[in-house]
Amino acid sequence: MRFKRGKRAQVTIFIILAIVIVAAVVLFFSLRGTVQKQTLPAFVEPVENSFLSCLEQDVETGIAFLEINGGNLEQIDFEPGSKYMPFSSHLNFLGNEIPYWFYMSSNNLPRENIPSLESMENQLEKYVEENIKSCGLEDFYDENYDISKGLVQADVFIRDNEVEVDLNMNLAISKEEESYIIKDHNIVVKSKLGSLYKDALEIYDQEQNTLFLENFGVDVLRLYAPVDGVELKCSPMTWNADEVFSDVKEALEINTFALNTAGDKKDYFAVENSLKNNARFIYSQDWPSTFEVAPNEGSLLIAKPVGNQPGLGILGFCYVTYHHVYNLAYPTLVQVYSEDEIFQFPTAIVIRGNVPREALQEEDISVQEPYDVCKDKLASTEINIYDYNFIPVVADVSYECFGSRCDLGTTSEQGYLYADIPQCVNGNLIVDGEGFKNTKVLYSSVYNGSSTIILDKEFERPVSIYIDGKLYSGEAIISFLSQDSVQTLSYPSNKNVDLSEGTYEIQVQVYKNSSLNFASTTREQCVEIPSSGIGGLFGATKEECFEINVPEQLISTVLAGGGVSSFHFSENTLINSEEVALEIGALSVPKTIDELQKNYISLESKTIGVSLR
Asked: DSSP characters for 72-119?
């Protein structure tokens, strides 16, 4: 029985000791800051307060840098963009280079650079450790203080609404006969860095999972650009691609800024989420972006009518159908904010073939980057560039091989360039000189070599149309076709053409106003179809008829002139001329669909006069 009582007494003692230890630990942590402040000597307090003020300023500055740089204090390696993808690894916003959280590399591979909360804490720790050493306490030296600083170690804890910093550093303070050492320094800075970061991460995940920014971009594209459609008319529809892109960019800038996370869920511009803070989205027309469209004829988008061509008179009407495919790549800056604190990061928006890119998969990021031929320039070349009078030309030179384009440099005033070049068979030297036609020359660079390139001067000249000797100011479409280029002008709004020495085929179609009104009609059309049953197997046919309903149609413009000619432009004649004059014979303005077809037939046999004035 004694043995059992003794065991019960031991257990009771252990329980009491455990309670005492826990209470002591809780008391220590709850009173740690208070005890330290109470035990500081009076001559030390002003120094420590000044030091803590320094520490607080450093922390606040570090927080600000983290927020405006997408959670990055350390420099991220810069990766340039290319003509295929305009994004570098950083977005310049108001002079500040912000690393992208997501972008497409120059060779069209997805890249992610999202800092974790732990990495942000580590970066802020290093920032504090580097900057606290320069905390100025010189004012105390005039009061006979002697102050020295020891080694620094910081611990940072980022929470939703505050950032805590524990700094371990011996701060030795002496004044006259007194001395004291403070080892631990602690501050808490009010900041929503943690909360803003979490919301930014939620928006980023939402974008990668749903591509809501890309889908929004597709909506803008379809509203402000000709994507697809059908219209009843007999003249071509034309758009200037540069003007279309300008309209799309302006619309993206305005409408992207209208997106919000605090609006009514029924609002089209409201982005649904569970953020604790507000967010906005920014796109600027001045930021690097790529806008491509196909099919195109130079800078024009042209949709030609159907129904007025020879053999299609049976239709009894004309219509224009168009379908253009766009590729867009542009940045969007996401800002999550609360009062005067803003956390921001850029992300790339990519639309291909009128639809958003595929949602990012984890394995996409780990794809091994293909070999970049531009990194290993193992051969060398000497390049000399002249015009036709053997006058040296200053020009930019690049080399294209295996889908990569490598910049080689710019020729000197003597037209000479010595450059290292990647080794490649049947690559292309590409030369771009101001005032000269862009030139591509086949060049193999397996061994060291040289190349002499003659550039054609390029002349911008206005084009005028004359019908029966009188200047024409109505609508027309003019095409200049050479061996390696096609330029199409929408006359008279676009009258300038770039010409260099060479032979061009010139095509002109002149359109005039018309008031052709085709009433709605119904006609019967009969066709031969295979007979049913056994007879059909042996080629027997039967006639089947059906009705074609043609709606009423008003034709406002019709083909009324034009022709085709081939003309050789020499450099001397281009130098001594100021205008390209096209002389065209008039065609009768058609009054029926049959007459309209006859005009198209006549167009192929008519020639136009070409002269330089």
From this structure: --SPPPP----SS----SEEEETTEEEEPSEEE-TTS-EEE----HHH
